[in-house]
């Protein structure tokens, strides 16, 4: 479907993203190569290197592109559950569940591969994107809590990211996605007390 036309700019980039995403779905977590993508997209490795430094960078750009369009992404307007505790449980549970669905499942694969390869550059890029997305969610949680007078100020960034980091750790080490019971325990034992102490 991509043959017979010369594509430039955004059109070519979108076509490459489409092919890369399709290959991710069929590669079962194994690393992609530029040769695979170039063949499937009917382009050349030279073109790919012009846009991306490595296959990792291409995959990361592809996932970022599709996550912006992912209907399974959490919507910020749904976060207000009536209390800081309820908001935290909702966000934590939704985050954990999203790890096995849609675009997020491939971010998990990419993170696992980067850890296995001990590639600090790759890990830094993934964590930077994840941090930005996680803080956006927690900013809404904090705004809700301040509006309800549950918090007086925004807790430190490390506190805001603690729940996500703990869920990632449990998922990576244990291989199982924590459910609502585990998330509730995490919130009650660690996250909520820390936010209350540091946000007042």
UniProtKB/TrEMBL annotation:
GO terms for molecular function: DNA binding. Coiled coil: none annotated. Gene3D superfamilies: Homeodomain-like (1.10.10.60), Tetracycline Repressor, domain 2 (1.10.357.10). Residues 33-52 bind DNA. Keywords: DNA-binding. It comes from the Bacteria. Residues 10-70 form the HTH tetR-type domain. This is Transcriptional regulator, TetR family. The lineage of its organism: Bacteria, Bacillati, Bacillota, Bacilli, Lactobacillales.
